[in-house]
């Protein structure tokens, strides 16, 4: 059995990681101590874990775990792909680590991969913090004519990360009316309609106050919009401007009265923004939980159907207890199969002190059929003790250590172009047609071999040693086969399951062409592979364990959903809904008094992560909403 030693992870190391984008594909394989890929591993045991910052030692402060993607091709056995995984939405350094669950308690982890998440494409302008809604007039007092002061605008990506640090240009401030037909537009100090500010390194600082002109035009008690339009020549796609609504009054006293109302409006807008985000997040969490329940139900049904294919029926009640007892019984049955006597090679193997040493030929292959194992072992008797190495240097080292007494075969000295094609059909099959009907069940000897390790190297070794040697039932069938084959092509060596050999030159008979009984081979015989029943039990146990985990998962997500749905009807939640309705009604009345149209103030507030103290984690959007709701409930 191969022992997993490490995880090998391949990915595009030159890729960039823009916030909210998609990671490049990660290709993971489990390697044994001789760097061979271990196959037939359940994909559910391979996971990708990610967290913000850099973990140290065995500490893994995991924020999110990904499962591997479905295998697209049977040839990918042993390789596990992690495709289309979402990059975190917040910039910064993140750690990624892949794990292989060897059993319930032991986990094999890869080296940590540190990735730097960078901002995505520029999308909009936003200030550090949203300013209050201005209420201004055109009187002599400057304070009453000031729209904004000390405002700093930044380029943000879709996820409100600062970006565009390499962009240079300008920001143009203008005043517009929601009513396109309105021609009476307020002007800035100096009777100008626009002001430019320099834009550098992703930001524009409005250092000087933006002030309206004294006696500026404008309709009394009217809403206008202060628009900051970015002009950045290097950008192909224009950015969304930043818009700030304000109220204009011709009367100073009225302006002072309305300033109080605008402050109340801003406070209500912020509070409503918190409530709406909270309720939206709650609803999104319910939908996510229902999706999790649906996925868990689908998984449970799928695994139950897979178990039926193995003739395993499960009861509707006390399922977990039944599955646990069944797993225990299958493990006992599996142990019983392993304890049954089976053919083994008793020839001592050569110590593998060097990774370039594969071992003795007798230990490199296994054969299930006893008769085939006997005749093939006898046919290769002179080679069974030979040690195969990857390099001539390793072979020479063994030769020197044993004073030349040990046979060695270095693979780098084999001329591989003359090796047989393992997919070549038998000689009686030519161009997809049967030239004659053979008897005796002929099969290439190499097709009866299984290789526990180093499959490609072993195919090279046995391709050279066996060539196109064929196994057939008995001597009569072998003679018939040879007589027909030589009519159309060269006939390779034929071995019979009864122990006879017809050489490729046609010679047979005599003691040198007759295999002795198995016990006369003195243990120099290919061992038998693990019984197929053992592998069947392994598959059933694995499916049962997966099903048990699926049942537990389904029960957990159902309990979480039920608990959350009940929490939505608590007096506390009903009170919050009532408070939101009252605040929305108050906001509508204040905006009517101000003469303002229903504004986007709440929507703007929802763009600000600080409003809800959103967690700065790499959790994907759904998970982030879930964590936010938990935080709000606390």
TrEMBL record:
Keywords: Chromosome, Coiled coil. Residues 355-482 form the SMC hinge domain. Residues 286-313 form a coiled coil. One of its GO terms (molecular function) is ATP binding. GO terms for cellular component: chromosome. Its main location: nucleus. SUPFAM superfamilies: Smc hinge domain (SSF75553). It is found in: Chromosome. One of its GO terms (biological process) is chromosome organization. It holds the Pfam family Ig_SMCHD1_8th. The keyword Chaperone does not apply. This is Structural maintenance of chromosomes flexible hinge domain containing 1. The lineage of its organism: Eukaryota, Metazoa, Chordata, Craniata, Vertebrata.
